[in-house]
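User: For my dataset I need records formatted as: sequence, then structure tokens, nothing else. Please produce one.
Assistant:
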Amino acid sequence: MTAIKKDICFVIHSLQAGGMERVMSELLNYFTASNKYNVHLVLYGIKRDVFYEISNDIIIHRPSFEFDNSKRLLSTIKTNFFLRKTIQKINPVAALSFGERWNNMVLLALLGTKVPLYVSDRSQPDKSLGKLHDAMRKFLYPKAKGIVAQTEKALAIYKKMYAHHNFKVIGNPIRPIPAQQIARENYILMVGRYIKSKQQDVLIEIFSKLHASDWKLILVGYDHLKQSNQKEWEALAQRLNVADRVVFAGKQSEVEKYYLSSKIFAFSSASEGFPNVVGEAMSAELPVVSFDCIAGPSDLISDGESGFLIPMSDQQLFVEKLQLLINDSSLREAMGKKSKELIQKFELNYICSEFESFMVSSTED
């Protein structure tokens, strides 16, 4: 006798290229592959195309109208009605929403319904979204069925912020990067959108101070949030006389070749929820040098074993640790092997099963 599948719902504003979006796509594929659920994706933001590969069996729900920024209030109201009507019609055993202020919208849309909604912020946990959204979060988050924190630091912060009892720490699933016969080059790699909080400009300044004339800095990413930083950062590299050794690689759907052809991963971000790219670099056996920002790198990197955690804004120490790795191939190799070992605790199926247990089991209790 064939078991009746349960309806489960995933709600996100975008599946464009990005860490949050990648995790959502992996969860979608995991739940679909389990063959226990009818998997619904509610994709409701301004851009509704899908960058990541997801199963054809996923049922996608999009608004029939475009989000008109010139009529933002009206579009927001229409989106709220769409969310409420669509998710109630699905009537899922559980729903999961990703994304700070976007979670506010979904929680508001489902206010007063019986939909068991789980939410997870995917950025720096103590980041203010402004007085209005912060007040909304304080009011709305306790009404969620459960809250997923990405790190122990995030959990401690959330417990002070929200009057809620049902928290769960679940890190991000890290895709294994299989070894391939690709020669590693003298590349320092960073992967991240070209936005100010990622601080690629700071990394370019750090790179310019290295004694490494035969090394290149590879920046995989793209202009995002209408910040248009690439031209400014290209000009910075020119002023610092490293333009011929700083490569803006753009958006890449297959970033594995960059991980596997590089020797060091550098991460200059000023704020994070959980940096997937650091985990992926570790999976590819790369030592990582990263600023110790709130709240992700310290949950991944073992300082002095798999890489180095640098106090925020200490550019000189960042330079010194990168230079140490550049000069010492044995240290790079040892730290890379340790990275590969430590990252196993974020194996994809295990992390996805943690989400399933939290969402479905706690809903059935």
